[in-house]
Amino acid sequence: MVLNIQHFCTHDGPGMRTTVFLKGCTLRCKWCSNPESIHPRPELAYNPAKCIGRTECGFCLPKCPEHAIFSTDPDLKVRINWTLCTNCSQCVSACPPGALSLFGHELTVEEVLAEVEQDSPFYRESGGGITLSGGECQLQPDFAAALLEEARHRGMNTAIETAFNVPWENVEKVLPHVDVCLHDHKISDPERHRKWCGADNRRIQENQKRAYETFPGVKFIARTPLIPGVNDDEAHIRAVLAFIRPHPNVIDYELLPYFRFGESKYGFLGRVYELEDFQPPSEELLARLRAIIDEAFGRATAITRKTQP
Ligand code: SF4
Ligand code: SF4
Fold it and tell me: What is the pLDDT of residue 74?
């Protein structure tokens, strides 16, 4: 169940990469920039800015078997009753301007690789490859493992972005086919993790430690999406460093400063974005926290950092 295939990515592992976003996630991070990746099945999205309105168009109205589409004055644009919508997608093909669309579709390993391989000249030049992201890519372990194994067979570097909130059996299937594992350390305290991410971090940390020890050949890169007032404190950064530094295959720790990416998509899905008043962290704070990380890794200067995925 694939959400999207994104080309020419530079923040999802070494070199130039093609990132395949899979659908489904077990966490509900309030700052999630890909809310359309959370639900494990295809999902309707509605962009009212593209809707022509019921007078000029209205083709979607009779298509809905659930009567979930309606229109109200004064702008004549349609609205969705999200509690009635079953994501059946029957309205999507009736919408000429694409105001109604579907997030997520089933693809085979071969179909994904056919698209990914279009970028293969860039991989060879940059040392890049394929990255599986999400959502949580380890929630589709058989598909992820088959895709990564075949990508490797075709000479690509393989990476995943994961939160590790999955059964260990899934990790055992996926990681043998991974060169680089980018993984989150969102919040140190289990109960605060539950409050902000919808689940505590006990299974996550157990999986992380076990993965570091079980797969010494994988390069792990720890990351924290830095959310002001939530986890942008020195204590969290030092707690993560204490967790990862005993493991030599954790080769780096990156901070991903919060940006309001993805906010508009909440509206398209009939959901509410809860962090409206949050602002990105200051450059001064970032520099101070990165200096702590650089010191722990024995580096003199900060390496180039990434933005929030
Ligand atoms: S996806 Fe199906 S149920 Fe939902 S609004 Fe469209 S036609 Fe109705
Ligand atoms: S088919 Fe699309 S453009 Fe036409 S009324 Fe429905 S949502 Fe609006």
Answer: 63
Tell me, using a 6 A CB cutoff, whether residue 76 lines ligand 2: no
CA dist., res. 187 & res. 168, Å (int): 21
Tell me which CATH homologous superfamily contains domain 2-39+105-296: Aldolase class I (3.20.20.70)
Please tell me the distance between residue 38's alpha carbon and the centre of ligand 1 in angstroms: 19
Give the CATH fold of the 43-103 domain: Alpha-Beta Plaits (3.30.70)
Domain boundaries, the chain: 2-39+105-296, 43-103
Do 234 and 292 form a contact (C-beta atoms < 8 A)? Answer: yes
Half-sphere exposure of 306 (CA within 13 A, CB side): 18
The Cα 18–Cα 120 span in angstroms is 9
pLDDT of residue 224: 97
75/41: higher pLDDT: 41
State the pairing for strand pair 17-22/2-9. antiparallel
CA distance 215 to 289: 29
Quote the ligand 1 centre to 62 CA distance (angstroms). 10
Quickly state the pLDDT bin for 307 (edges 50, 70, 90): very low
User: 62: CA distance to ligand 2 center in Å?
Assistant: 11
CB of 95 closer than 6 A to ligand 2?
yes
Please indicate whether the domains covering 2-39+105-296 and 43-103 agree at the CATH topology level. Answer: no
Peptide bond before 74: cis, by omega within 30 degrees of 0?
A: yes
Averaged pLDDT score across all residues of the chain:
93
Write the residue with the smallest CA distance to atom 1 of ligand 2: 95
